[in-house]
Amino acid sequence: MGGLIGLIVLLFLLPMIIQQQTYYLHVFIIVLIYIIVVSSLRTVALSGQLSVGHAAFMGVGAYFSGVITRELAISPWLAIPLGGLASMLVAVLIGYPFTRVRAIYFSMISLFGGIIIVDLIMVAQKWTGAAGLANIPLLSPINIPGIGNITFLGQKLPYYYCTLILTLVCLFILYRLEHSRVGINWKAIAQSHMVASSVGINEAYYRVLALAVGCFFAGLAGAWYAHYTLVLGTSTFGFLPSIYLVMYMLVGGQKRFAGPIIGTTILVMVPELVRSLKESAPLVLGAIMVIVVFLMPQGIVGLFDQIRVRYRKSNKRKVTESVAGN
Amino acid sequence: MDAQTLASTGISALMLSAIYILMALGFALLLSVMGVLNFAHSALYMVAGYICYEFTVGFGLSGWLSLILTVVVMGAFGVFLERFCFRPFFGDTNRIIVIALALIVILESLMNILVGTAVRKVPDFISGTIKFSGFQVSQQRILVTFIGAAVLIALIILIQNTRRGQQMLAVAQDFVGATLQGINIYRTMAFATVIACALAALAGSLGGAVYYLNPFIGDQMLVKAIEVVILAGIGSISGVFAGGLILGIIDAFLPMVLSGVATDATGLGIVVLILLFRPQGLFGHEA
Amino acid sequence: MLLETKGLTKNFGGLTAVSKLDLQVSEGEIVALIGPNGAGKSTVFNLVTGVLHPTAGKVLFNGRDITGQKPHTVAHLGIGRTFQFAYLFADFTVLENLVASCHLYPRSGFWEALINTPSYRHKEARIQTKALEILKFVGLDKVKDELARNLPHGYQKVLGVARALAVNPKLLLLDEPIAGMTREEIYFSLDVFRKIRSQGITILLIEHNMECMDLCDRVIVLNFGHKIAEGSSAEVRQNPEVIQAYFGRKNA
């Protein structure tokens, strides 16, 4: 717990540490945004549904918010949560029939869902722009009493802090959910849907719920992303990006909450920071994936867990004895 | 619609159907026999296309020889795939998905680096057109359709009449039962994988002769393959034929009415609609 | 009458798994459903709990038609069940298995869980207590922190029974609850069943093992999906058709 607080403090002090170099700030902002997206992917996956189309939901939020702020002059601060809601709505509409099928088919169908969404975005070219969406409004200035006006024009620093706060809030909510009864039910369904049903857990409801929550945060992060990069292209939200999201989650480790955070940080930052890797980044990523699959089935966090488990081994005979001595 | 348009679109429909069925069948085989969701199937299509190109243009071999060689090479790759990528993780669905995804990424980015934007296309096996009264059709396209159809028919006969084929069907339908019958599961799975890869290779070589190659055409094909499999229904191999045919017809005729991306979206939309009313697909069992 | 089926039938394509089954279980009874392998016994359970939809016929619980209701609704109505193959929440500990199974009573909603209201925390505390109580009742409390999949097979089945108890059932459907158990585990389990019955819970169980039959008030025999005999365990053991069904096949 203390370590966590220390980490958060460090994150807030980060800009001073790196002397506000805008390039690095940019990288961190992107990492933070993707941490939200990948963590939300993990939330969906908690219920046993591995989605290979998650990037598209980020896109829904991004395009929705971008369009309504541009065309309807709505404040981005309002539009961003609306983007999350839009994404959630799409997820529930498209997802509802798909949550009725077994997990492996869900993965197949999620691929579909992702592509349909991107296609629909392209079809709506009239609003979304043939070559992408441009001229998306910045986050509008906020007035904090005591500190004064904060503008976002041409400044990375306010973006960094706001993104950091957003990420922490989102992660907190996702963490809370996972460790509540809702999360227990999700994990139960993932382990055995038959047993879960037999104890009264409504499988369909909880699967849709996982999808809805996960896509809400993906859309939220996407909308935020839109008002940061100010330009959108559908290639950011297609099949390959969705695969990357899955990768980030699995390399970091799907079992623990910190997994997506670690995975995303490493896999997004490293290619960015080591420029020479950039061109062959996908190849390196693929190679890393293979290594992780063969050697670290639980991802990087799994390594830490394995070390811990060595000290907590249990033994069947010991169990029988303790039960029999009842 | 005049005879010419009807004829060429009709041939395109049949040709697309053949290619889709080849891809979807391979994908469905892997899914039902091994429970593997092989996202990398698209990459196989793409790699096969490039390999075939290399054989014909790079090595100067005849079209037919290149085709056969490509299929053999990819079939061999299938053995490797099954042995090292699928078998060790049999049962662990998520991990296999990750491997398939890793494969796609590696293969696509590798090809991207090697080939980049160079425009490539497998040369026609036969050039020119056949002329009928009132219209003419590309011989290449007819040939592709023929080859595809012939292979598929041969495959069905093979599966239904050989022991290996029967075993494959048995494993697909009831895994535990099949093991109890003494069927060598691993050999059957290898068999299925080799066939799936060979089919993808054929599709890739044939498709590569008709359409231009790029490292990412596989993605489109993957979507089509999955569409067909979902349409056909869970566990249904015969439904794949119907599904492929339907999709081929839609994809050939729809562009005449709608343009560009709308065609894709509509095709997908139709599939989604069918799924909404019949979640188990056209020919599937209860999900 | 607690549980009743009328004309319950299930066809799978050409195969008839259950055929026009009329079954009654009264409150407080322990009834055994027996029959050779493939007689359709597990299918009956799946039909009653809504895992499968009957081709024909009805299922009535406490006089109310529950045919085709979803499994989670059936659980809510008061029917708990175990599975033949000791399904569990494999990654959870024994205690976590129970805590997860107490989902229905007391029930929490999404928002109160998210916000962590005091009433929600109170409910969760009650669930922890209830889970521990059930574990103590079935005798598994000493291993509550073990990973469920590390338990020996027999105790995994007992855990299954504990889980079924978590839904506050009036009726318990036990699918081969002592199959594959060691002698020790069997005595352990039979004891648990007696305790369950003394709590006023009705039990319908599927079994092969004769020892279990002595515990039962009534035995129903199934063969090829038909009911071929019904009565006390002594009566049924003498029934020629039953003998034929179990042993006659060997000579066929």
Concise description?
The complex is a heterotrimer of chains A (326), B (287) and C (252). Chain A has 326 residues and is an all-alpha fold. Chain A has helices at 2-17, 22-46, 54-72, 76-98, 103-123, 125-128, 157-178, 181-191, 193-198, 203-229, 239-252, 258-273, 281-295, 299-309, 316-324; strands at residues 142-144, 148-150.
Describe the protein in words.
The complex is a heterotrimer of chains A (326), B (287) and C (252). Chain A has 326 residues and is mostly helical. Chain A has a single domain (21-324), classed as ABC transporter involved in vitamin B12 uptake, BtuC (Orthogonal Bundle), CATH 1.10.3470. In chain A, 73% of the residues lie in helices and 2% in strands. Chain A contains 15 helices and 2 strands. Chain A has a two-stranded antiparallel sheet with strand order 1-2. In chain A, a hairpin with a 3-residue loop joins strand 1 and strand 2. The radius of gyration of chain A is 21 Å and the shape is globular. Chain A starts with a helix and ends with a helix. Chain B is globular, with a radius of gyration of 19 Å. In chain B, helix 2 packs across helix 9. Chain B is built from 11 helices and 2 strands, in the order ααααββααααααα. Chain B has a two-stranded antiparallel ribbon. Chain B has a single domain (3-277), classed as ABC transporter involved in vitamin B12 uptake, BtuC, CATH 1.10.3470. Chain B is mostly helical. Chain C has helices at 41-48, 71-77, 94-101, 110-115, 118-138, 153-165, 183-198, 210-215, 233-238, 240-251, and strands spanning 3-12, 15-25, 30-34, 56-61, 64-65, 79-81, 171-175, 202-206, 218-223, 226-231. Chain C has a 6-stranded mixed β-sheet, with helices on both faces. In chain C, strands 2-1-4-5 form a 4-stranded antiparallel β-sheet, with helices on one face. In chain C, strand 1 and strand 2 (15-25) form a beta hairpin. Chain C is globular and about 60 Å long. Chain C starts with a strand and ends with a helix. The A-B interface holds A 50, 52, 94, 97-98, 100-105, 107-109, 111-112, 115-116, 119-120, 122-123, 239-240, 243, 246-247, 250, 254, 279-280, 282-283, 285-287, 289-290, 292-293, 297 and B 31, 35, 37, 39, 89, 93-95, 97-99, 101-106, 108-110, 112-113, 219, 222-223, 226-227, 229-230, 234, 261-262, 264-265, 268-269, 271-272, 275-276, 279, 287.
